[in-house]
From TrEMBL:
Region Disordered, residue ranges: 1-29
Organism: Tothia fuscella
Protein name: homocitrate synthase
Tagged with keyword Transit peptide: no
EC number, as in UniProt: 2.3.3.14
GO terms for MF: homocitrate synthase activity; metal ion binding
Domain of life: Eukaryota
Swiss-Prot/TrEMBL keywords: Amino-acid biosynthesis, Lysine biosynthesis, Magnesium, Manganese, Metal-binding, Transferase
Alphabetized HAMAP family for the sequence: Homocitr_synth_fung_arch (MF_02222)
Any one biological process term the GO annotation gives: lysine biosynthetic process via aminoadipic acid
Gene Ontology CC entries for this record: mitochondrion
Lineage: Eukaryota, Fungi, Dikarya, Ascomycota, Pezizomycotina
């Protein structure tokens, strides 16, 4: 994002900070209203886009229960529901009360909490399920039925005429009970487009609150999603909900494209858990959307709660948070390469599109490796409250890089080298920097030091002799 003149310490666009006249005005010119800095990563403006006003239907307690490892008792469900509500999700979707007696009781228990988020339950498109759902006291009912030829033939065995008739009956009943109602096709992207749009148009006419499209098998691409949602937006007036499975890795991109095309709601689950590879992850969607519209996302959601919620769910389903998980993975804000570390230490936005502090996270510059640079070591020296000159830091950096060429090293190893190096300088001693090396490792370490020193010496000689270095090729 480009800095404003005020951020550069200037005013009225003048480098010296002086204005045109004592009152900051100029005769014969109109004062231009101050413009807010634009976000270069925001999507191209579109009157149909909902990138800056989307709503989340959080389905960890419905889709997430379909995850292979999932078993949520009532107490765990209540803890998760309260945490999601505090985070700021708009809706919490629960397993169908028709699934089991305990599912029905859990649904009633969560309704009784009086959360700010609206409580939904997800049922098959038939009257018995709808009546059971309404009886639990939920705010809304999500009904679904398969519309692809695969599901019509091999799942429920009903044709489009039956689906349309039943859908209208269920919608009218749920509405008569004062509840929100969503109708969704299942396996939308493998359904006949004409049948699908005809069905959506019919349920829209009877006043459904939302229609849903579901990429049930995770086959859709962002372009397909955009085209279908854009087409659907021209057919219905109601809201459009989206549900994307992640079998082919497109769930987050598909959700974003759906919002760009005019969808209003996105289904998510914590860490993306769900059937097979799961659905759009809550944290991953936050990562995508905070880049597109940071003000909306930071103003609506308590982002610092994300790690706590993910840890809670991960513990409940007995999995570890992946190392490369969006936002909360332990490598998410870790920088290792020397050129990265130098730039990050100068200005974090050089290699970070997301500010970890927005999520209550911290960045980490990895300095215990052969890839480290002296700027990273300098930062660590300062963290250890030690005083070394830049020249001394460059020497100790070579020692750390040489050891990292011999064997893997940990933070404690690097810190030990730094501290001993500093102690030797302070006390005029010559204690070994790495006391526990084997004879073989000592030989390798000495060789690595010599090679690094030779490279440094050659560079210095080349510079003194005026030997040109390799020119950088523009990308």
């Amino acid at each position: 994002m480009c800095p404003t003149p005020e951020e550069n310490g200037t005013s009225n666009g003048h480098a010296d900070g002086h204005s045109n006249g004592s009152n900051g005005s100029h005769t014969g010119f109109k004062k231009v209203a101050e413009q807010k800095s634009s976000n270069p990563y925001a999507p191209v403006g579109d009157f149909l886009s909902n990138v800056s006003k989307f709503q989340i239907i959080e389905s960890t307690l419905r889709e997430g229960e379909q995850f292979a490892n999932a078993f949520f008792d009532t107490e765990t469900k209540i803890k998760i529901a309260k945490a999601l509500d505090a985070f700021g999700v708009d809706y919490i979707e629960l397993t169908s009360p028709a699934a089991s007696e305990q599912s029905r009781l859990d649904c009633e228990a969560i309704v009784a909490l009086g959360l700010k988020a609206k409580i939904l339950t997800h049922v098959r498109c038939n009257m018995e399920d709808a009546k059971m759902a309404v009886a639990t006291g939920v705010d809304g009912v999500d009904v679904v039925i398969g519309t692809s030829s695969f599901l019509m033939e091999h799942s429920h065995g009903k044709d489009m005429a039956y689906i349309k008739k039943t859908a209208i009956e269920v919608i009218e009943y749920v509405k008569s009970q004062g509840k929100e109602i969503r109708f969704s096709s299942e396996d939308s992207f493998r359904s006949n487009l004409v049948d699908l749009l005809t069905l959506y148009q019919a349920v829209d006419k009877v006043g459904v609150h939302r229609v849903g499209i579901a990429d049930t098998v995770g086959c859709a691409t962002p372009r397909q999603v955009y085209d279908l949602v854009r087409t659907l937006r021209g057919v219905v007036n109601c809201d459009i909900e989206t549900h994307f499975h992640n079998d082919t890795g497109c769930a987050i991109a598909n959700a974003f494209c759906a919002l760009e095309a005019g969808a209003t709601h996105v289904d998510t689950s914590v860490i993306g858990i769900g059937e097979r590879n799961g659905i759009t992850p809550l944290g991953g969607l936050m990562a995508r959307m905070i880049v597109a519209d940071p003000d909306y996302v930071k103003g609506k959601y308590k982002l610092h709660m994300l790690k706590e919620i993910e840890d809670m769910v991960a513990e409940a389903v007995e999995i570890n948070i992946p190392f490369n998980n969006y936002i909360t993975g332990f490598c998410a804000f870790t920088h290792k390469a020397g050129i990265h570390a130098k730039a990050i230490l100068n200005n974090p936005s050089t290699y970070e599109i997301i500010n970890p502090h927005d999520f209550g996270m911290e960045r980490y510059v990895h300095f215990a490796s052969r890839l480290t640079g002296w700027n990273a070591i300098k930062s660590r020296v300062e963290q250890l409250n030690l005083t070394l000159t830049d020249a001394q830091i460059k020497v100790v950096t070579q020692k750390i890089k040489a050891l990292a060429d011999v064997r893997p090293i940990a933070i404690d190893d690097a810190d030990s080298i730094i501290r001993t190096f500093h102690l030797n300088l302070t006390n005029n001693e010559n204690k070994p920097l790495i006391p526990n090396l084997t004879i073989e490792e000592q030989k390798k370490f000495a060789k690595a030091e010599m090679e690094l020193a030779a490279v440094k010496e050659k560079r210095e000689l080349d510079e003194e002799a005026g030997v040109p270095t390799a020119k950088k090729v523009k990308a």
